Amino acid sequence: MEQKSQVYYRSEKIYKNSREKFGYLIRETVSNSIHATLIKQSKDKSNKYKPHIKVEIQFKESEAEITVIDNGEGFNILNRKYFTHLDLQNSEKKNLNLQPLGQGRLAIVYFTDYAHFTSVHEENGDYKIQEFNYPDTGPTLFDIERDSGKKTNLTTTSTKLTMRFTKQQSFKRLETFIYKYDDIEKLRNYFIENFFPFIINNEKLTLEIDYNNSNVKINKKYIENKITSIQFKVNFDSDITQNHQFKLWLIEKEDSPKFKQSIKCFARQLQADLEVGRLEYEIDLTKAYDWYLTSDYFDQNVDQKGDKIEISQSHVNQIQNKMSETLDHHFKNEITANRKKTEKNLKTIKEKYHSIAVFIDEERTLNSNRVLEEKEIIDYAIENKGRAEKRYWTSSEVDNEDSEKLLNSSLNIYVNHRNRVLNKLHDLIKRYDQDGEVKSELEDEIHDLFLKRKETLDHSDKINHLHNLWILDDKYTIFSSSFKALSSQKGKELSDIYLWLDDPEQTKELLILELKSTSKAHNSGDKYESMVAQVKRYATQFYKEPVKLLDWDINPSQVLYSGIILARKSDIYKELSSNNIAGVPNKIPFLESSYYFNEKFSIGFNKTSAPDYVDIRIEIYSYEDIYKLALNRNTVFFKLLNSEYALEPADNN
Length: 653
Fold this sequence. Notes:
With about 650 residues, the protein is an alpha+beta fold.
């Protein structure tokens, strides 16, 4: 006989810090009932016996009762002996490979406030009934070995275990479990998940679950139409004696499919976790499954509680590799279809996102069993880029693969940024908005697109966000102490933008840039001062006061003058058709509606003396032409960066 104090101590040692807590009680008591029915079935020569276990759960606000009933052999003389002696292994269970561990009684002691057994067994042709509380209220835990019970009129063997939970601590443990499985469907899935091998390997076994009078029955027929089984062998460490059979069960379920499949392992027909590592498989499937793995190897290596499979990481890895290889073959058609979709997504990304294309691991991407969507491929490429950039900044190497990729990526981003700027320019020069209404864009919008008002550029550090003068020409990209730009303040009697070159070794130059509204220029045509005349006036203004205007201490007679006007095509035609135009317009080759003038502006300081003039070349471009030019230039840059141009091999004939 076991001393009660010893058994309480053992139960607390095993279950106090258990991960599953209350689930152990369900698992141990129900598995004991299943064992009892399987032993009886093994002795049934008529082949008519059907194992049946019923679990009734009555859950109320502050108390609960769980009853487990089975139609096994009951407490016959052999079972009374094993029940009385906690550490005595049941030979009948062992012969059926049920691996008895004696944990059920310890779980009852630890988790319940009250437990009562009612058992009917057959002895020498008579049926006898036994009833007793567990544990006993006496100094010893139990001793039913010599008590065979009383005769009864019942003619079928059975065991009924009634467990009650009334104290706060025990009820809270049960309550946590019930909140997780709070309806009959969730409980059904719990029992399938935890007792799956018993169910699938015995077509006569039935588990009946009753939760607050909602009832469901589980048997092999119930689940087998949704099950696929896949077998494989693992030869551990190339040792033929270490060759073990594994069986993977896929149970279809009503759920949203997930790409990462967690494999649940079973030992001694109960769910158990690997002590180290985990088993997973990644694939996109159209249906959702539960994935269960069984093996005699797991049965041999489970711990005393039955919830930890104690095998090495090396063996876990070998199981993983063989399982993945087997599943790859099983799902080869699905994998092929998935990879075609991934390949299509990859192609789209390489066309759209040139800056990260070089950081995509194509081999990894195209060998995935899943459908890798654009976002995931992009995210992984960005991670690769981040690692490459870290290596770049922590290394002093000049020529390496990372440097080439990073340079290509940065240039792609910059060229893509230009494309966005050009898209904005294109939107500005559209005559109609999205609703078909005539637009009236303010001149400020186009002004700020080229160079924000009141900005002066005299260096090239951190100023790319300030200007987009490259739209005109890429020579207007880099500024320095000798090549500067000024954007005028709104309301001042100045041109929009001035660019000037003051290099001692080069000719001094001034460019006057006048930006007209993208909807309608206010001074095109006959009525007002022409656009060309306006630029000439600004040139005269500078000539008279260069220091005041641009803080440029220069002899204005030594400066080469030019002007650029940007306007709508319609305004340019209106300008050229008016009588305000002085010089003769010359069409700029290969452009539809852009012209240049070789003009002169007056520098006469005395209106009574003969006029004096200085040459100025004025170019007038349509926004439409400038947009096409810049877009074509940018497209060429893109193609160069992505190696779309290749030299033709020399013809030696």
